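B., you asked whether I could sanity-check this one before it goes into the benchmark set. Here's the sequence:
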Amino acid sequence: MIAAAIITYFVQAAAVSPFIVSCVSFISAFVISYVVSLFTPGYHKNIVGLTVATKDQEYTGK
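And here's what the prediction gave me:
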C-alpha cells in the first residue's frame, strides 16, 4: 500500500485528471498486492460451507 501511495503521489504531481489519478492508484495497489501474494506463503483455511460451490457440503473441521 505504501508503494501504491508513492506512485499515486507522483502521478498526482503531474497535474493530470483526478480520474486518472484514481485509476492509477487502484491499478497500482492491485498489481503490487498481486505480486506480493505470489512471493508470500499461502494460507489454507477450511472454508467449506462459506462459498456457493460448497454450500451443500458438511463442515468437518474443528
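One thing to flag: The mean pLDDT is 82. Otherwise nothing jumped out at me.
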